[in-house]
Prior knowledge:
The chain is an alpha/beta fold. The protein is built from five helices and eight strands, in the order βαββββαβαβαβα.
Amino acid sequence: MGWAQVSREQAWPAEFSAPGTGGECYNRNTDEGGFSVALTIASREVDGVTVLDLSGRITLGEGSVQLRDAIRDLISKGQKNILLNLGEVSYIDSSGLGELVSAYTTSKNQGASLKLLKLTKRVHDVLQLTKLYTVFDIFDDEASAIGSYK
Length: 150
């Protein structure tokens, strides 16, 4: 396995800076010739709802820290309606679950609303197994999720 250097613009949207002081992030190159990306977050606005499109793995370390920072940043900027699109999340570990719960709690305590969209089968199964499926508002399609904030 090797390491591939990726520019910040390729892996990180402009709203979020790459961790550390350098201008690049490093994604681990897998044996299959692809990349094991911890987490990529893209932010967009739809009808007053901030949608965070997550892709990759939400795991101990970088992935969970990125998610935490993104949610805290949105709340500090006064965003009250946050939708996490998990349709491209390939894996979530216990630390990632902890971050989802923490994000939900922080949002609720700050008067914001955090909901989940397009769970992959793996993430869906983990949320059901841990009984967290009942904690979150979860939607399969974006239009219904956006409409639920009104």
